[in-house]
Each structure stands twice: as C-alpha cells, then as structure tokens.
Amino acid sequence: MSSTAFITGISGQDGAYLADFLLAKNYRVFGLVSRRSVDTLWRLDELGIRERVGIVEGDLSDMSSLSRALERTQPDEVYNLAAQSFVGASWNQPVLTAKVTGLGSAYMLEALRLVGCPARYYQASSSEMFGKTVTPLQNEDSPLHPRSPYGVAKVFAHCLTVNYRESFGLHASSGILFNHESPLRGEEFVSRKITLGAAAIALGRADTLRLGNLEARRDWGYAGDYVQAMWLMLQQEQPGDFVIGTGTSHAVRDLCRIAFGHLGLNYEDHVTSDASLRRPAEVDALRADPSKARRVLGWQARVGFEQLVAMMVDADMRRLQTRGRQPMADRGL
Ligand code: NDP
Ligand code: GDR
C-alpha cells in the first residue's frame, strides 16, 4: 500500500520539489495551502504535478485547520515546510514571523498530538540558526546565535521539535538545511534576484542590478537534492537532527560573477552594492559540515555551485524570452 504525506508550504520551492519527489515514489501527497495562494500554485504547474496533489485549505497559524487536515488526510509522514521564509522581511514583520515560522511548529506538533496522529514529522530548520558563527564549518553541535527575527523563530521551532521527540517519543526530525536554490526559487532571494537580473540585462531589458552586501558567504546547493535528504530522515529507525549542505561556500560576489559570466557579461559593469539594502545584522559566513548526513543517511549534494547558477540563469532566460516578463521591482534587503 502506498504511503501518504502531508506537506505544509507545498506552494513554495521546497514543497513543490518534495511533492514531485514523493509522487515519483508513489506516495499520496496532500498539501496545506493558505487561501491567498490557492489560485497561484505556479510551481506545481511548472513541475506538471498540480492535478496529482490533494490541496487542503488552511493556515499554519490556525491549529484547528491543521487538526482537520490531519484527520482528513491520515498521513504517515508530515513535512512542516511552511514559513515566512524571507530573512529580510523578518525585521519588518517580526511578530508575523514569530507566529508562523516559530509558533507554527507548536501548532503543527500539538495538532499531531491532540489528533493522535502517529505520523513521522520533519521540521524545516535552517543554518540561519547558527547566525554569528564561531567555527568555519557548522555541524549539529555548533552553537546557535541567530541574527534575525527569522533565525530566532527557527531556533524556537527547532528546539520544540527536539523537545517533543524527547518528551513524547515522537519520530520528529529536524533538518538543518543550508541555502538551497533552483529555478523555482522566490525572486526576493539573492540567487534568483541575480539570475533574473542578469538575464534581463543580457536581453537589454535592464541595465543595472542593485544588491546589498556582496561579501556575505553562503553554502548554496540545489533544492532538488535537498528534498531527498528530508525524506531520508523520515525513513530512519531513529529520528534526529541533520545538517544538510554542500560543504563549500561562496560569496554573493562569486554568484554574480558566474551568473553574468554565463551570459558573456562582466558583473562589475552592472551590479551595484547599495548600503540601503544591507541588513541590520548580517550573517557573514555559513558553511556546512554535512558528515553526519553522509554517514547516517548516505546523502550528499550532487549539483555543484556553477552548475546550479547556470541552470537558474538558463531558466530565467527562457522565461523572459517566452513570456516577455519583466524582473520584479526591488523588494529590499
Ligand atoms: P518558500 O518561501 O518558497 O515557501 C514557504 C511556503 O510557506 C509557501 O508555500 C508559503 O505559502 C507557505 N506559508 C507561509 N505562511 C504560511 C501560513 N501562515 N500558512 C500556511 N502556509 C504558509 O520557502 P522554501 O520552500 O525555500 O523553504 C521551505 C522551508 O524551509 C521554510 O520553512 C524555510 O524557512 C526553510 N528553509 C529554507 C531554506 C532554503 O534555502 N530554501 C534553507 C533552510 C530552511 P504562500 O505562498 O501562501 O506564502
Ligand atoms: P538567506 O538568503 O538570508 O541566506 O536566507 P538570501 O538569498 O535572502 O540572502 C543571502 C545573502 O545575500 C545577501 N544579499 C542579498 N540578499 C537579498 N535577498 N537581496 C539582496 O539584494 C542582497 N544583496 C546581498 C544577504 O544579505 C545574505 O547575506 C535563505 C532563506 O531561504 C531562508 O529561509 C533559509 O533559512 C536560509 O537561506 C538558509
């Protein structure tokens, strides 16, 4: 008999790739979608899976909708991916971020407990929890020092997941994922902002791209690889915490150089660094030590940094050429 998965955040980047991955494994897939997004499931459309996913309307900050969704779908696995996930916006909306990104995990875990749902649970934790790092590489034991309201909310959700595992014996795992991107990445994140900007400039539709801090370093991988790690965590006999990343890091400047270079352009002719787009507190450098994931899950990233950036640039070129779409207005930070 096929297994059933329930995914919050199915309309987002990871939710879409995870749904695709699970459908290929013959899962029945249900996803929580808020009313505002029910008509804009463009990522599921791009992957050609919209009709194969069961949509349940609800909101992560409304526990009754979560309980009802669990009762209706009877999942074997729950993936809690929904969040206000944009770090930059979290300074302007700290309360919303706390409510959805932080407390949302409490609503989901409580709904599981109160409904008596025996599903295995995955929490989408983040390398942003490490924030102000003290070692060049971060693993499952590295200290947490979040630098944004988003990071603070993710620490709460992560600790609560560990606590429910220890308190109630829940099969609850926390995936501490480093940045992962794809052609389905939201346009507000720096990778997509750069690949879309470079494509628009190459096509003569824009001339400059305004960014913030070009020196920040991140461990960027491909989202399609990372959803497999989520699934692997829930297939283990024992739940746990797992750092997921490539083990390499690059600066925002490197991403610009590769994206523009892929189109035969020099980023220095087009990219400006604008002080108003810098964050109130920055995470300077993140780099994963994914050795536990390699050892226990047998997981490792497949798509390299240059390949990832080229894939995203090519997808944005195709989109702009076929749809004549303009890049988004600057959404700051
Ligand atoms: P996205 O921003 O692409 O997706 C977030 C999803 O959450 C969207 O489907 C969004 O729906 C949904 N959502 C937001 N608020 C609510 C709400 N109140 N109720 C129900 N759904 C809601 O994020 P990603 O796919 O990139 O990330 C998935 C998860 O992993 C997030 O929790 C993120 O914080 C975390 N993460 C991501 C990393 C990355 O590099 N991508 C790295 C580490 C962690 P809507 O469209 O309606 O807003
Ligand atoms: P991040 O991703 O904050 O790491 O969170 P983002 O792409 O937004 O920023 C990465 C780095 O780039 C710098 N930067 C800019 N960022 C944006 N968005 N726009 C700019 O113009 C710009 N210029 C420079 C940022 O300052 C930062 O240092 C992502 C999200 O997916 C989170 O949900 C997830 O938890 C973490 O990755 C791991």
Topology:
Elements: E1 4-8, H1 13-24, E2 28-33, H2 42-47, E3 53-57, H3 63-73, E4 77-80, H4 94-115, E5 120-126, H5 149-168, E6 172-177, E7 180-181, H6 190-202, E8 209-211, E9 217-218, E10 221-222, H7 223-235, E11 241-244, E12 250-251, H8 252-262, E13 271-273, H9 291-297, H10 305-323
Parallel strand pairs: 1-2, 1-4, 2-3, 4-5, 5-6, 6-11, 7-10, 8-13
Antiparallel strand pairs: 9-12
Helix pairs in contact: 1-7, 3-4, 4-5, 6-8, 6-10, 8-10
Bound molecules: NADPH dihydro-nicotinamide-adenine-dinucleotide phosphate (NDP) and guanosine-5'-diphosphate-rhamnose.
Features:
alpha/beta, seven-stranded parallel β-sheet, binds NADPH dihydro-nicotinamide-adenine-dinucleotide phosphate, 10 helices, binds guanosine-5'-diphosphate-rhamnose, two-stranded parallel sheet, Rossmann fold, UDP-galactose 4-epimerase, domain 1, 40% helix, 333 residues, 2 domains
Report on this structure.
With 333 residues, the protein is α/β, with parallel strands linked by helices. The chain has 2 domains: 4-180 and 221-244, NAD(P)-binding Rossmann-like Domain (Rossmann fold, 3-Layer(aba) Sandwich); 185-219 and 249-281 and 304-323, UDP-galactose 4-epimerase, domain 1, CATH 3.90.25. The protein contains 10 helices and 13 strands. The strands form 4 sheets. Strands 3-2-1-4-5-6-11 form a 7-stranded parallel sheet, with helices on both faces. A two-stranded parallel sheet has the order 7-10. It has a two-stranded parallel ribbon with strand order 8-13. Helix 2 links the parallel strand 2 (28-33) and strand 3 (53-57). The longest helix has 22 residues, at 94-115. The radius of gyration is 19 Å and the shape is globular. The mean pLDDT is 96. Bound molecules: NADPH dihydro-nicotinamide-adenine-dinucleotide phosphate and guanosine-5'-diphosphate-rhamnose.
